[in-house]
Amino acid sequence: MDAEWPQAGSVPVRRQGASAVELDENVAVYDDVGQLLILLNSSAGSVWKLCDGSTTVDEIVEALGEAFPDQAPVIGDDVYETLRKLADMGLVAEAPGAPGAPGAPA
Amino acid sequence: MPHAHDRAHCTPNLNALSYRFAVCCDDESMGAHVNSVLAGLRDHSAEGEGGADHSAEGEGARAPHRYSLTASPGRDGALDLARDGELVEPGLGPADAVGWLVWDVNRLAAEQSGQHLLFHAGGLEADGTGVLVPGASGSGKSTLTAGLARAGLGYLSDELVALELDGAVPGRLLPYPKAITLKPGSFAVLAEMGPDPLGEGRGGEWQVPVGDGTGRRVGEPCAPGFVIAPRYDGAAETALTSLSETEAFFTLALHAVNLLSHGASGSAALGRLAADCECYALTFSDLDEACALVLGLVDARVEPGSRRRGTG
Fold it and tell me: ipTM > 0.85?
């Protein structure tokens, strides 16, 4: 994936085959390719849940800013960092057909 | 070459979860001992229609796998363990031979019961409620399980507990009531369960029979109600600590033998277990205190006194 990913207009989507179990405020993600269980803390879990293939990164930041107003100043950076980590683990990618997806018109 | 079962003392058909087998010995007293050690695994499915088949022809006759314990040629008093005609281990002392047999059955029970989610765990049943005791070797899992069986809970297993799965929905815990394998560190606190009449076998262990006439009843399939993750620490105070859902989930995942083969449905079932059961870590140095803590939890949920119902 592009090193600059994600951008404000990127549309992240959870990879098919990665499934989540909600636990307390955390999320355990089972990755059937790497055959790993990955624990996401509550903030990473919140980002994960919004990677639905139709919500842009800007919209994720906005939604989480509204949900956690006291943390709004740092949420933007957290969301970008979390998405980069999830992408590095192969758990999210740009949604097919989204502007930043491979093969999408420039 | 004559087969052991041509002149053999055979067990009835035995079920280790989905692994079905029988054992034949050429020595009568060894046959009786093996029969006693594996009594908890007897297949009772045929007993409703004409009773159990203990005839010479019927014993072990329908089991798809057959072990033999026969005199080792040229080695006085030693035994060869074979499975389906293939040598598993030659030249064993009697106690070692039983230890090897139990080990091999454990291995194949896990291998052939993959439709269930399997835990490296002890398991007990109290009035239809299951207690899952996941733990690594040396955690005190078998000791705690044996102590709770001694206190009247139904014994499911000290090694491998199967959770039925219907998709991602956890069903019942299923019994695999093998003999309880006790290590030397537990002998003093569970002295009445020994000594093993054959002496200390593979790894210095006792194989402790369960079922009718032993004072340790076999539990029924049951809905999981508790997860108790033990850790023996001789220097620690005995204490129960509640586990969060996340802690319980990863504790269960760590001891799930075949989680990866069940993938998403397996992890979802773990999540349901972690959410629906009361989950605790139990650090213990004193077995009686540890059992009292667990029994207190169980008694708070099941009808008082009912957990000892049916003590054998």
Answer: no
Which strand (E) or helix (H) includes residue B245?
helix B245-255
All residues of chain A having their beta carbon less than 8 Å from the beta carbon of residue B253 are 28, 37
Between A17, A24, A30, which is nearest B267 by CB? A30
pLDDT above 90: residue B221: yes
Task: List CB contacts of B273: < 8 A, sequence separation 6 or more.
Answer: B132, B163, B170, B224, B227, B248, B252
Residue-wise pLDDT tens digits, B277-307: 999 999 999 999 999 999 999 999 887 666 6
Tokens of B199: 């002496």
Which residues are registered as beta bridge partners of B69?
B25, B81
Q: What is the pLDDT of residue B218?
A: 96
Query: What does the block give as tokens for A59?
Result: 């919209």
Residue B249 is which amino acid? F
Report chain B residues whose CB lies below 8 A from the CB of A91: none
CA distances (Å), B58 to each of A73, B26, B30, B54, B224, in order?
77, 17, 19, 6, 36
What are the pLDDT digits (tens) for B251-269?
999 999 999 899 889 999 9
Calculate the CA A97 to chain-centre distance: 17
Q: What is the DSSP string of B103-143?
A: HHHHHHHHHT-TTSEEEEEEEEEETTEEEEEE--TTSSHHH
As to burial, measured by CB atoms within 10 angstroms (0-12 exposed, 13-18 middle, 19+ buried), residue A47 is buried
The 3-class secondary structure across A25-60, one letter per residue, is CEEEEEECCCCEEEEECHHHHHHHHHCECCCCHHHH
* Nearest-CB residue to B253 (from A19, A24, A37): A37
- Asked if residue B24 lies in contact with residue B38, where contact means CB atoms within 8 angstroms, the answer is no
Tokens 């491979």 appear where?
A102
pLDDT band at B150 (very low <50, low <70, confident <90, very high): very high
Mean pLDDT across chain B, nearest whole number?
89
